[in-house]
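Internal tracking record. Fields below are filled automatically when a chain is submitted to the structure queue. Please do not edit lines marked as system-generated. If the sequence contains nonstandard residues, flag them in the REMARKS field before resubmitting.
Queue: standard
Priority: normal
Entity type: single polypeptide chain
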Amino acid sequence: MLYWDYAAAAPPYDEVVQTVEQIMRLHYANPSSLHRAGVEAERLITRAREVCAASLGVQPIEILFTSGATESNNLAIKGAALQYQGRGRHIVTTQLEHPSVYESCLQLQGLGWEVTFVAPKSSGIVDPADVTAAVRPDTVIVSVMHVNNEIGTVQPLREIGQGIKAVNRRTLFHVDGVQGYGKLETQLKEWEVDLYSLSPHKIRGPRGTGILVVREGVTLFPLLTGGSHENGNRAGTENVAGIVASAKAVRMSGEKREELSRRLIPLRNRLLHFISGVPELILNSREDGAPHIVHFSYPGMKGEVLARKLEELGMTVSTRSACSSRLAEPSRILLSMGRDIPAALGGIRISFGDIHTEADVAKLEQALLDAVQSLKKAQGGMK
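SYSTEM-GENERATED OUTPUT FOLLOWS
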């Protein structure tokens, strides 16, 4: 089987696996304990915080560890809304966001906050002017993802962030950076980002650990209480092994970013060109998108049917974001771009990793042709 679902979960680096094992065997003490073993565990977390901060260009005090990017996004959105509701009860986000952002906003909307969901252009890119126009004096936070997890479009964060601050300096800017870090350059200060979420298991780190950058001076209302962990932002005994291994993955992915992008862009472009020549398929990704994601639709054929056929042919792909892949309804992302329901039901996501070669892409192309022809015949026979 060839695995084409790196955007959902990437296999961990060998060094990450070794780190998790070593820490779990040798440094199992509670880092909040005052004895020597606890202090040693706490030092490991402190060092991990420094490593992550150096990779992201921020201060160690601005790194907060969570259980994953879903928690990081929830804490960023809800924590800011609850902490700063005295400034207003208005939130701005886009129709493209990951469910952990989108549904956090819907939950707050149900509790009385007003949310503006900015629509993208048909390209899947949000116009910075549309975001800026939505910002008001009572806007507490704006949340825009760096790279769309389904179709791979890259949002113009510098223009968006600077536009937000030009309208309302006190409005916080949150970026879901899960699909961007390790593939594209990350410039949090230039983008004027206040909050930034990261998921180590997307960059060959461990599951169960997340990162939230919280700019110094920003306070969040804690969603989990019961201890003073993580500077009072998140109660709960720290996952020492996960945190240390995550820091290793953040550092390694940051160091390998340019090389990885150089390798993946030609592979992605080859696949884009191939798909554009298959009459039954419609491309949803762009050539100027993230280097690791290609998304297309087979209108009239449910995505899971094509995904199963490709799996029979030795290719592991996904139909959309892993957090939404079991849903039967049309893709919210594709509908927001103006795609019709048949196209929004027939989406397939291919996501690359550093193991993939041109020979692998050639095998995938042949499997796609075989799958489409097989399903087309079966479809014709049913009529």
